[in-house]
Amino acid sequence: MKTLVITGASKGIGFATAKKFCDAGYRVINFSRSTPPDERIESHATDLSDPEVESRITAILDEHVEPGEICLVHNSASMLNDTVKSAGAAEFVQVLRVNIVAPQILNRCLIDKMQPDSSIIYLGSTLSEKAVANTFSYVTSKHAVVGMMRATCQDLSGTGIHTSCICPGFTNTEMLRTHVGDNEEVLKSIASLSTFGRLIEPEEIAGAIYYAAQSPVINGAVIHANLGQIES
Ligand SMILES: NC(=O)c1ccc[n+]([C@@H]2O[C@H](COP(=O)([O-])OP(=O)(O)OC[C@H]3O[C@@H](n4cnc5c(N)ncnc54)[C@H](OP(=O)(O)O)[C@@H]3O)[C@@H](O)[C@H]2O)c1
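Above are the sequence and the NAP SMILES. Below is the predicted complex in structure-token form.
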């Protein structure tokens, strides 16, 4: 049986992705702090910002994942409202632990078990390639995610494992709502920034992730999934 290992499937894009892979017959294993509302998902309550998380993840994956066709989706992310002036070392490290370090812990645990046609899918953002104000640590980490994906592609040459980075635009999830203070007016104005005049639904990004996972030809690629952003 094919296996999906994913982070952050408790809600939003991660939950939509986990459901899609379950529907396609995958066994799905998740790491997040809260539990996804779908009992088909095997979930291990884990705080990826915990400095001790490596031993926990290693033990769980050693015990629960056999070698085979594995899709690994790095979806969890932490986002703060911070700036280059305000970001303190402790908060900065915490964001990097979730967004950058945890993916590499999972990579190291799983790559030797990944047989040809396996895949590693990173979640970037529109903010992987540009910046906006007040999102300093998140922007920094999302740029790094693209570097990780490109390095993954080069380092795994000849293994039959493919990788890509899906970069969503404004998607209707808790992360976006929290970031804008759940303000409906702000959400409307954000929606108007896409050529479709609406927010993206998590299921649409899940579809892009699934497609990338099934497509070895998509390797080393940054894929923009943003409904077409209106350029100013
Ligand atoms: N929504 C957007 O507009 C947007 C745009 C561009 C990119 N993205 C990217 O898409 C991905 C999914 O975001 P989303 O919008 O679906 O966000 P979301 O609904 O807020 O979900 C975030 C997920 O990350 C997990 N997570 C956060 N902190 C964690 C921690 N310390 N340890 C373990 N898991 C943690 C959460 O699980 P728990 O809270 O249960 O731990 C949750 O399942 C992220 O990589 C995000 O950067 C989103």
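The chain has one domain: 3-171+201-225.
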